[in-house]
Amino acid sequence: MAGSTWKYQVFFLFCLILHSQLPFPSSLSSSFSSMPPCSALLHFSKSFSLVKDASLSRASYPKTASWREDKHCCTWDGVECDQNTSHMVGLDLSSSWLMGHIHSNNALFFLPNLRRLNLADNWFNHSLIPSEIGNFKSLTHLNLSDSGISGQIPFEISQLSSLVSLDLSKNGY
Ligand SMILES: *[C@@H]1O[C@H](CO)[C@@H](O)[C@H](O)[C@H]1NC(C)=O
Ligand SMILES: *[C@@H]1O[C@H](CO)[C@@H](O)[C@H](O)[C@H]1NC(C)=O
Ligand SMILES: *[C@@H]1O[C@H](CO)[C@@H](O)[C@H](O)[C@H]1NC(C)=O
User: Fold this and answer.
1) Per its UniProt record, what Gene3D superfamilies does this chain match (predicted)?
2) Which of 62, 64, 94, 140 is buried deepest, with most CB atoms within 10 A?
């Protein structure tokens, strides 16, 4: 009957929309672990919109806008690599107009050699700090000040044994 066909079509459309809104299929998130660091970083940057109002500092500018795939990511603005190992050890995207949610399966969490992470003065839309922050075993400096994160601070932060500086100020807890 025409009526039930119509209902099925609406149901299918609904499933399609629901499916397309899931953050990432888990198979994709596990594939990040084998992703080259530059690709993971690019993936991370593309998960945000660049919106000037997301940063309050007068000196803010969108650092990721100048990132080019044909250049090695160690040359990108805000990226610091160890000269000997060429491991990515620092990421400073403070005041970089980043707006959007940080999800727990974000490619960022597959950059395990990070020692310094600064995402201060952006707007992460009341995201929770994912417990995957515990993946950064070498993290010494973490700055998420004034970045629109909220909710409980994950227990895993207490297990970052190399941490010497933690700034979670100016967020809505
Ligand atoms: C790189 O290696 C040289 C020689 O072993 C060492 O003196 C230097 O401190 C190292 N640099 C870094 C950033 O680890
Ligand atoms: C964290 O970043 C903010 C904004 O850039 C800066 O004012 C603050 O001094 C930083 N915190 C630490 C501990 O360096
Ligand atoms: C994030 O927050 C801003 C400001 O409240 C809002 O305009 C934007 O739509 C939000 N983005 C998402 C992905 O929820």
Assistant:
1) Ribonuclease Inhibitor (3.80.10.10)
2) 94
> What's the whole-model pTM score?
0.82
Give the CATH number, domain containing residue 99: 3.80.10.10
| Ligand with the closest atom to the CA of 21 | 3
Structural domain includes residue 85: yes
Between 6 and 110, the more confident residue is: 110
pLDDT at 6 exceeding the cut of 50: no
Q: Who lines ligand 3 at CB under 6 A? A: 99-101, 125
The winner for highest mean pLDDT among 85-89, 98-102, 106-110, 134-138 is 98-102
C-alpha torsion sign, points 131, 135, 136, 137: positive
Atom of ligand 3 nearest to the CA of 100: 13
Does the C-beta of 120 come closer than 6 Å to ligand 2?
yes
Residue 161: Cβ-neighbour burial (10 angstroms; 0-12, 13-18, 19+):
exposed
Q: Which two tokens stand for residue 99?
A: 């707006």
Ligand nearest to the CA of 90: 1
Instruction: Report which ligand 1 atom has the smallest distance to the Cα of 83.
Output: 13
Residues spanned by the domain of 74:
36-167
Torsion 66-143-90-38 (CA) sign: negative
